[in-house]
Amino acid sequence: MLDRMLIEHWIDEQAHAEAIRQPILLFEHPSKKMIPDAVGFLAAQQRPRGGTTTIDPGLQDETKALIHEHLPRLPEGTDVAAVIIETATNNLVALVGSANRGDPQDGWVNGATALRSPGSALKPFLYGTAYESGRFSPESEIPDRRINREGWTPNNYHRTFDGLVTAREALQRSLNVPAILVTEAVGVSKNVAALRKLGLSLPENATERGGLTLAVGGLEVSLLDLTNAYATLAREGDHTPVRLFQDDQERQGHLVFSPETCAHLNHDLASWRHAPAGMDELPPRDRPWFMWKSGTSSGHRDAWALGHNGEFAIGFWVGHFHGEGDPAFVGREAAGPLLADAFTRLVPAATPPPIPEPLAVERPYSFDEDLSDHVGPQIITPAGDLVMECQGAYHQPVLGEGEGLHWFLNGKRFELGGDHVRLEPGSHRLVLVDQYGRRDVRKIVVQQARRSVTR
């Protein structure tokens, strides 16, 4: 470079000689501080031309510092991930994938994009889907008592039941049984469709795989996608993909929930009405306003806290990347204080929205008196598990009954053309799922028959 500058007469021979004698000093570019987290993720996008990211370097550093402040109160070796989205532009302004990049085993895992069980963090969207159906409102009464679904008897976190509760109370207290009953009443397939519209990447067989466990974290999602789903509630139900680069064209959004549904979810889950751990001692009006929800996965493997204040959507995940649980990983206690501090210290305070008008209920849903033994779909043919011998493929007669039926073979949905299904030699799992997520299962083994030998 110096030689070229001399040839082009940018410098003279004396300046060239002096420059040659100077030692070469190397400095780390400030952007490299973000490479392990945000820039590392953004660099993996299919974008050959590169570009300027939407990451706010100052906010990125402040988010990392906040996480490190909280690490001493968490179990040793805890991993933490964070996402912050500006709702007006839908810009990704901060992304922390790992609290400890120096960890040789887990340091380079990106917890913001990893798929994890969300626990109860999906419940606002399940109730939102119920409100959109016209059959539920926050005032709707839902039974909270023991139920049985094909041998599954779900419990609430505190292992108690309260009889009839309103949808608002059930959501605020994160009761499991009412959420399961609402999911069942509306239909698992409709809830899965709504979650997909919110941008959550769910498996092709999500309805069959998740079933009613959808209400308690039965399907895995990423922190980035889930935080953007909460940003959708800030945008009055309008969902748009996250913007990663400043020159990204603004994409057309689509409405998932009505502004009225979002207003009620925001109001009922507001920090003024229920606060994360560490903030509940403050008088409600002294707390910064934000709506939020926590989640705790089975076995205390994942602790979540996510929400928005109208201007920013923020999400935190706390756990171990290797999946080992810890009793300390409870959403409200482990991730909640991080979220409370983020809304207090990292982003501007927001103006609380007005109290929403009551939601209209067109056709109120009536729960059955006996909730302990719902009749689900039935596979009539085959009547039980089978072991068949045949030459080549076997054509199994299939017949089922129930409402809104979907057939799955080995985890993949198929349309039943006629009354038979073709089964190749091997083990097969035939599942029939109705519109409420209830199912019936048959196991079928097709064995290759031995050919008889004639002499």
Quickly describe the structure.
By secondary structure, the chain is α+β, with helices and mostly antiparallel strands.
Notable traits:
455 residues; alpha+beta; Beta-lactamase; Immunoglobulin-like; 2 domains; 5-stranded antiparallel beta sheet; 12 helices; 20 strands
Give structural notes.
The chain has 455 residues and is α+β, with helices and mostly antiparallel strands. It has two domains: 65-346, DD-peptidase/beta-lactamase superfamily (Beta-lactamase), CATH 3.40.710.10; 378-448, Immunoglobulins (Immunoglobulin-like). Helices cover 26% and strands 21% of the residues. It has a five-stranded antiparallel sheet. Strands 13-20-19-16-17 form a five-stranded mixed sheet, with no helix packed on it. Strands 3-6 form a two-stranded antiparallel sheet. Strand 16 and strand 17 (412-414) form a beta hairpin.
Topology of this structure?
Layout: H1 2-7, H2 13-21, H3 35-43, H4 57-70, E1 79-86, E2 91-96, E3 115-116, H5 123-132, E4 141-144, E5 163-166, H6 167-172, H7 176-186, H8 188-197, H9 206-210, E6 221-222, H10 223-234, E7 238-239, E8 254-255, H11 259-268, E9 291-296, E10 302-308, E11 312-319, H12 331-346, E12 378-381, E13 386-390, E14 394-397, E15 399-401, E16 406-409, E17 412-414, E18 420-423, E19 426-433, E20 439-448
Parallel strand pairs: 13-20
Antiparallel strand pairs: 1-2, 1-11, 3-6, 4-5, 7-8, 9-10, 10-11, 12-15, 14-18, 16-17, 16-19, 19-20
Helix pairs in contact: 4-12, 5-7
